[in-house]
Structures are given as C-alpha cells and as structure tokens.
Design brief:
By secondary structure, the chain is an alpha+beta fold. The protein has helices at 19-34, 47-54, 67-77, 103-111, 184-187, 269-282; strands at 4-5, 10-14, 41-43, 60-65, 84-88, 98-99, 115-129, 132-139, 142-147, 154-160, 163-170, 172-176, 201-205, 215-216, 223-227, 232-236, 242-243, 249-264. The chain folds into two domains: 4-114 and 265-282, Probable inorganic polyphosphate/atp-NAD kinase, domain 1 (Rossmann fold, 3-Layer(aba) Sandwich), CATH 3.40.50.10330; 122-256, Tumour Suppressor Smad4 (Sandwich), CATH 2.60.200. The strands form three sheets. Strands 1, 7, 8, 10, 11, 15 and 18 form a seven-stranded antiparallel β-sheet that branches. A six-stranded antiparallel β-sheet has the order 14-13-12-9-16-17, with no helix packed on it. The longest helix is centred in the first third of the chain and has 16 residues, at 19-34. It is elongated.
C-alpha cells in the first residue's frame, strides 16, 4: 500500500449516455463545495474539460458511470498522471470500488486521508505493415487480434521476446493486462491476475487444434503477433476494429504510462469485489 492520497483540485465527469450520471456528478460537486473544494463537473467527452485534464489542471478525476467510462478515463488521465476515482452506475464495476449509494461515505474517507493510489500497467500496441509503423495505441484492458465478420478462424503466430512461442488457428488472440484479466480474457477462459502485476497475459479465443491454454509472460516481456490470414481485425480496449492485412504484425509491450486509481482499505478489496460479482451470477440457482 502506498502513502495516503489527499486531492486538492478534483474534477467530476459523467458518462453522457447516462442521464442519472449528471445528477450524481452535480451532487458530488455540491458536496465537495461544502468541504471548501471547488470541483467543476461535465461530460467525459467535453473537449475543453479533456484539454484541462491533459494539461494537468486537476489532481484527481472522479468519473461517474461504469467500467467503460473508467476505461475511457484511463486513456485520458494516464499520460498526465491524474488519479481516477470511479463511482459505479453500471452493471459490473470490476474496475470500480464505490457504488452510487456509497460515495458520500467514501468522500469523507478521502478527505480524512484514508485513500491510497493503485498503479495499473497499460499496454502499448503498435501496428507494423511492410516494416513501417502505421499506428500506436495504449490499452488498459486488452489488445485483441481476431477474425472479422468472416466466420473463418484466423491464423496467427505469437513471438515472445522475438522468439516464436506458438501458432494459433482460432477466433483470435487476446493480449491482456492484469486489469483486463477480469474482462474479455476472463470470458475466454483466462485466469484472474492480481491488479498490481505487470505481466502480459495471452489468451486464445476458441482455438482449433491449437494451444488452448492461457500463458502469463514474464514481467518486461513483449509479444509480437504476426497475422497469417486476410480476415483479421485489431481492436484495442473494445474500440471499433481496424482491418488487418496478411503479414501485418502487432507488437505489444508495457506502455510507458500507468493508470492510477484511488482506492480505500486494504488491497484485498480486489478479491472481495471479484467474488461479489461472481456470486451475483449464481443467485437463483441451486447450490
């Protein structure tokens, strides 16, 4: 656990497709004002507000929404080193510790010096075509090379630290962070990794006569995914897919930026959060 965190210049943002998120954000701003703290609020997509975050005008971003909103906030805040505090209005909230009914109590803890900062690794994905870099993106959850609308599986070769690991005939391959191990990688059968790990997790999607187990790479390792079919696409953190060409290579390494999250209590919150969500799925079924 790191030293306690006490913000002085917070900003509150809401996911624009959730009308109730703006009401909560406005209530948070009023609550903070009572504490003597001026905290503007607005849409997560407001360009002026985003520019101010990127310039380091704020020392904490409170995001009201769901896990998708926190992912977008991570992309916005990581380059500027701005910590994120999420308040869950969505369904799952694997990335979020605070529910909409609890934020007042947690805000009290925050200004009592009971919060700490958790650092989570991000990935850097570079698309190389004919030896030239044609695009670089950062991911908090995962980088996915998968089949597009065509139902045929894709053929991929994975290299770890430039050495061939294996080839895949599959619906796709996920290169995930520890954070992403509770997202698409979990749905594809991968393991759950502690959030503080800085390892890349490789998980095949519906492999056919290929290695069907997830692989956890050593910290500091990189993976290169060579595309050997014409029907593959690339998606980063669930964003709309980009078409790939045969012999394209997607290089995945640890990014030089880190997502920071405001947390409360002991680090065991992560496991309690996970088991709570897992137990939700078992409700109503015979034990």
């Amino acid at each position: 656990m790191t030293a306690s965190f006490l913000p002085k210049r917070p900003v509150v943002v809401a996911y624009p497709k959730m009308p109730e998120a703006f009401a909560e954000a406005e209530a948070m701003t009023a609550f903070l004002k009572e504490k003597g703290i001026e905290a503007p609020f607005g849409s997560l997509y407001d360009e002026e507000l985003r520019k101010a975050v990127k310039k380091g005008k704020f020392d904490m971003l409170i995001v009201v929404g769901g896990d998708g909103s926190v992912l977008r906030a991570g992309h916005l805040c990581a380059p500027s080193g701005v910590p994120i505090l999420g308040v869950n209005l969505g369904r799952l909230g694997f990335l979020i510790q605070i529910d909409r009914k609890e934020w007042r109590g947690y805000f009290e803890k925050l200004f009592n010096g009971e919060a700490w900062i958790e650092n989570r690794m991000m990935l850097r994905a570079e698309l190389v075509r004919a030896g030239e870099s044609i695009g670089i993106s950062n991911a908090l959850n995962e980088v996915v090379v998968a089949r597009g609308q065509n139902l045929r599986p894709v053929r991929l070769i994975a290299f770890v630290d430039t050495r061939q690991l294996t080839s895949y005939v599959a619906d796709g391959l996920i290169a995930s962070t520890a954070t992403g191990s509770t997202a698409y990688a979990l749905a594809a059968g991968g393991p759950i990794l502690p959030p503080e790990l800085r390892n890349i997790l490789l998980v095949p999607i519906a492999p056919h006569l290929s290695v069907d187990r997830a692989v956890v790479l050593s910290e500091g390792s990189s993976v290169n995914i060579a595309i050997k079919s014409e029907n593959a696409v690339l998606s980063v953190d669930g964003q709309p897919p980009s078409p790939l060409m045969e012999d394209d290579v997607v290089n995945v390494t640890a990014a030089d930026v880190t997502a920071q999250f405001v947390r409360f209590g002991d680090p065991g919150y992560f496991y309690r959060n996970i088991t709570a969500h897992m137990n939700e799925n078992s409700l109503g079924f015979p034990r």
